[in-house]
Design goal:
121 residues; mainly alpha; 2 domains; two-stranded antiparallel sheet; 6 helices; elongated; binds zinc ion
């Protein structure tokens, strides 16, 4: 079992506002970050401790805390042979020839899930 906590300063947008790196220096961000690092390892892997309870433990003294509806974590990748065929087709024939293995296929590894695709192009 593994657990983690990602705390992110959400930008309000850069258009007409301060640049994002300026907002990282906001004094409230340091306060929020110091509260976040106080989370204990056992809290992160406690299946009985819901997200809202964990957030309450960490930030209950703050004037406003919002919990957005989460989505379950799922393993998967959106890669497909059709996508990689399209990508490979964008290379000039000379480069595709250099990519081919002895069997005449171009083997592409998905950088996300490590699945291999053999493309005959
Ligand atoms: Zn993939």
């Amino acid at each position: 079992m593994a657990g983690g906590l990602l705390v992110q300063h959400l930008a309000e947008g850069e258009e007409g506002r301060e640049r994002l790196h300026v907002r990282l220096d906001h004094p409230e961000w340091g306060h929020v970050a110091s509260l976040a690092v106080s989370v204990r390892h056992d809290e992160l892997v406690d299946p009985a401790l819901g997200l809202e309870s964990l957030v309450w433990r960490l930030f209950h003294d703050e004037p406003e805390v919002r919990v957005e509806a989460g989505r379950p974590v799922a393993r998967g990748c959106r890669c497909s042979i059709a996508h990689y065929r399209e990508v490979v087709a964008r290379f000039p024939e000379g480069e595709r020839a250099a990519m081919r293995n002895d069997a005449g296929a171009i083997v592409v590894d998905c950088a996300f899930c490590s699945k291999q695709f053999e493309i005959l192009a």
